[in-house]
Amino acid sequence: MQQCDLGLVEAAAAIVSGQFSSCQLVSSCLERIEATEEGIGAWAFLDPAHCLEQAKAADDYRGTGRPLGPLHGVPVGIKDIIDTSGMPTEFGSPIYAGRRPLEDATVVSALRAAGAVIMGKTVTTEFASFTPGKTRNPHDPARTPGGSSSGSAAAVAARMVPGAIGTQTAGSVIRPASYCGVVGFKPSFGLVPRRGILSQSRFLDTVGTFGRSLEDAALLADCIIGHDPRDPDSRPVAHQRLLETARSRPPVKPDLAFVRTPMWDEGDADMHGGFAELVEMLGERVEEVELPEAFGSAIDLHRTVMLADFARAFARDYEHNRDQLSERLRGMIADGGKVLAADYSRAMDWRDLFNVTLDRIFERYNAIITPAAPGAAPLGLEATGSPVFCSLWTFCGVPAVTLPLLQGEQGLPIGVQVVGRRGDDARLLRTARWLAAAVEGVE
Question: Which residues belong to the active site?
Fold first, then answer.
């Protein structure tokens, strides 16, 4: 096993114990990137010399005997809509080619404080919307890796880097994690500050993490959760210690609600069959719960908010650089400009009503299990797949994590999405870890 094969938790522990150095780990990751990047295209920016400079600084600091951060010397990929000083942040658009921010985003500052090596910028779709970048799925280069956090998911899946940061406004963490066969975690809305990150929608944008295990995704989230008053939706709450809680044993075996959602018929036969087997295996630990009929409007309500916010967020580029925007994004911005204020306000009211219903479900069940995507990654690179199984949970601001527990007939990964009550992120991860162990027969 090479150093690049290790996850975040294992790599961080090995550096602390002196099993190998940060320079050795980063060099192993760079060798892996050199061998695989041409076929996958996960990186928008990578400077190997700068990576090794950071790693050497981490090793020199370790030699002082001072306390080390939880990610000391461990490389992390950053989605290219998140500002990084000293590196370009170009939003996946030619309009911002060469843009170099002067300051780190809050989450990047937090990662540096935790000791992480900022490896580079991972590919995003155009303005983190739906027009794909160059990235291909590591399991099959003829298939999409998902979006919009395409490069982050693919880089972790291809063992180029042990962890990465992404964002989700519809399904941009959960869906690519499912397609690429890694763990993707979208925390509760407001838990991770978004200062220094491209804004699409104030009430939907959420920062998430990618790892090869649930523990990896939890550790990475632990390092970026915090309060920043410059984000109007950032909340000063006590730290939940996600990794510690996720590793703990539930006091009793969890009860799970299997929710098909109104979008169930959009799933394919592999996904339907996989969930049938999963529910049968879980037996008395799971019950099917049907959402009220009103949830059938959730996708349209989410789209109303998202498109109106797109029209506001990208107004300047739509006005001055329209010819450099994709046709699809131009259409979305134009549609968003037609949304009435009354319809926007009504959609936000429905979000609160949906959460009241979900809270009642979570009074009875520890978590919801539901699809992460309609199936395995679809063939073709012209689109990034459908987010219909993610949009509801993003709209409600609840935490969600996808686990690569199922496979399609061709051996491609299919994620199981586990959803928790808003603010109960640690409990969700503990339940999800129990589920993964139960499927593996080691609970």
Answer: 79, 148, 172
